[in-house]
């Protein structure tokens, strides 16, 4: 599968502060990627570096498998990394015509792109009359004018109401379904989970996870068990191949599972080792729990 962007050991410091710490990942064609992390984790700096507006301290990145210079690659990319900024007294169409003129793009695409972002019926209204969501959608239409191979969005739903958020998410999915690769930065796990196929998790500039969203979710959870002989229970469970970290609580043991195992099997194993379980509860970890765990741990 074609690689759109390859980042290798990209690193950025501002004085003593490390904003991005030797991160490496690949963006493959046709996927929707989320860069997920709390505020200040280095998402915008990463986007800034690959868009040639922030100079990396070290490391490298390569667009389109190196078939073009990083400067020329920008013509094949659509990006919104700042708040939408258009002329307030001009209509959507007039603003997009101006963008076409500046970027030397054919005007014929304007209507098509306004339709993608659901703004055709307001295309003659002044930009100043637009809601924040409409402004953001116009920015997306503008970034799509040159039919980019990848669309990059930094916190695309920031400040929007639930309906505005929903519209932007639907539009992102519509654009992705037409084959455009998408890279979006977000601090919202829910957003990434709903929209993205793949995720790169950052914290304090470090990459904690890169891979499919559903593999981040492929977690076997924990079991909570108890028996009258706690010590024997501990020795029994710690030797099981499915058992990970064991935490002792007042009301029993919590055991993280490395492998899938059903309750009946655990019960049988315990019984065969002479242990009668007085408690056996299986809890699957939510993606949110995992995200919090990932971003707290490292
Ligand atoms: N121009 C700059 N000068 C100094 N420090 C900077 C600069 N730009 C970013 N930083 C710092 O680098 C770190 C990463 O910032 P960055 O904006 O990339 O994070 P982010 O994940 O995008 O967060 P947010 O969502 O809050 O923008 C932060 O500690 C930030 O204060």
Automatic annotation (TrEMBL):
The keyword Transport applies. Keywords: ATP-binding, Nucleotide-binding, Transport. Residues 5-229 form the ABC transporter domain. One of its GO terms (molecular function) is ATP hydrolysis activity. Pfam families: ABC_tran. Belongs to the ABC transporter superfamily. This is ABC-2 type transport system ATP-binding protein. It comes from Nonlabens xylanidelens. The lineage of its organism: Bacteria, Pseudomonadati, Bacteroidota, Flavobacteriia, Flavobacteriales.
């Amino acid at each position: 599968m074609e690689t759109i962007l390859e980042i290798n050991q990209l690193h950025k410091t501002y004085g003593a502060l490390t904003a991005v710490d030797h991160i490496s990942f690949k963006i493959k064609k046709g996927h929707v990627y989320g860069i997920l992390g709390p505020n200040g984790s280095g998402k915008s700096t990463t986007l800034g570096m690959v868009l040639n507006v922030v100079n990396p301290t070290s490391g490298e990145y390569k667009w389109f498998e190196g078939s073009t210079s990083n400067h020329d690659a920008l013509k094949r990319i659509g990006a919104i990394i700042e708040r939408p900024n258009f002329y307030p007294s001009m209509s959507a169409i007039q603003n997009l015509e101006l963008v076409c003129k500046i970027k030397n793009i054919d005007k014929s695409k304007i209507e098509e792109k306004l339709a993608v972002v659901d703004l055709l019926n307001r295309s003659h209204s002044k930009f100043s009359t637009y809601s924040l969501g409409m402004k953001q959608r116009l920015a997306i239409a503008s970034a799509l004018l040159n039919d980019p191979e990848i669309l990059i969005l930094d916190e695309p739903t920031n400040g929007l109401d639930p309906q505005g958020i929903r519209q932007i998410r639907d539009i992102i999915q519509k654009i992705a379904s037409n084959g455009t690769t998408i890279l979006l930065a977000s601090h919202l796990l829910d957003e990434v989970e709903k929209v993205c196929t793949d995720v790169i998790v950052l914290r304090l500039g470090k990459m904690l996870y890169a891979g499919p969203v559903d593999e981040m979710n492929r977690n076997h959870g924990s079991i909570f068990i108890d028996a009258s002989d706690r010590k024997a229970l501990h020795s029994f469970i710690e030797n099981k191949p499915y058992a990970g970290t064991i935490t002792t609580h007042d009301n029993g043991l919590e055991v993280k599972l490395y492998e899938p195992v059903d309750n009946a099997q655990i019960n049988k194993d315990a019984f065969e080792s002479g242990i009668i379980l007085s408690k056996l509860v299986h809890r699957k970890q939510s993606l949110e729990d995992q995200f919090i765990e990932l971003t707290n741990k490292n």
